[in-house]
Amino acid sequence: xSLPVTPPPAAALGQRTVLVTGAAKLLGREIALTLAxxxxxxxxxxxxSVEEARKTVADCSKWCGGSASFRANLGNETAVRNLxxxxxxxxxxxxxxxxxxxTFELDTPATFSFAAMEKHMRANTGAAILLSQSLHAHxxxxxxxxxxxxxxxxxxxxxxxPDFTSYTLSKAALESAGAMLALALAPRVRVVGVxxxxxxxxxxxxxxxxxxxxxxxxxxxxxxxxxxxVDGGQHLVKFEQKVAPL
Length: 246
Description:
The chain is α/β, with parallel strands linked by helices. It is built from six helices and seven strands, in the order E-H-E-H-E-H-E-H-E-H-E-H-E.
């Protein structure tokens, strides 16, 4: 289910379109707004945040018309498989995907369960792989078209600690999947990871820092199969506990 969509004007069909998951609020919203300011039409994915998604669409449309919102539970395989075709039907084309949405629930090796791991793997890893697969299939139908996928990761992968075990495993799997997808989907699709974290100087890498890096990754045609760390060097400094993501 999605909010009502107004078909884009014919002129808009030539504009680049990006699907940003989890774009209703927080980091996903900042990424959506940054890309809209750069001229992208934004497909705003959300799960439950209806009003926040509506506002993100309205704010994106101030910069680049034709944005719309789309509802899907990324833990449900059928919903994920239907998401990109729904965006394409409504907006005409998709040129890039930013996998920003994340399930982020606390567990540790002491409280770990298969259920917790599966919940995180479905939403954080499986959904991103299926959406990448769908983008590749779509681009093959458009002669000469190419695109990009950006996966939001976490510097915690380079600076591990035992909390948020299932979340961390899902992001580690996504980082590995990025390299495999970059090989499998080339030359039509580039795949880039972006990881944020706490700077050693004591401040978080800001949402605008991360969003700017996502925009850079989408534009730079020479980057694929790599992860850009936007953490001011946090991966060089040991932290005993996880700091909540943006």
